[in-house]
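seq:
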Amino acid sequence: MTYPPDPHQGQQSGSDTGGYGYYPVGGQDYPPVGPGYGYPPMGQYGAQYPYPPPPGTNGLAIAALITAVAGLSLCGFPSVLGLIFGIVSLQQIKKSGEQGRGMAIAGIVVGGIAAAVILAWLGIIIVASASS
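struct:
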């Protein structure tokens, strides 16, 4: 394949030529790059495609955090659901690569603490009622 003559022949490649010209590498010359040679100017690469959208947030992770916090305020069953939703959503996130790992972990921690408090209160109530 032949290339058109270099208008900067005899000059040093690089900044002296405005970024156009031959760039010797390994004893071979690259074709000239720039306007008039059928190539885009340096720094531009033709058609650019947008990045693919990032994976969404796992819905179960959101549900885990919401139900765990609701369990704190309602002092009841939603905290156990938050714990379960958090565990299931972590497994889903590992497989799918979705976002929301932090929310799932927060749902597990808050749900676990709330469930432990609820179980402790139930234990105290059972012991108190059995001793009286």
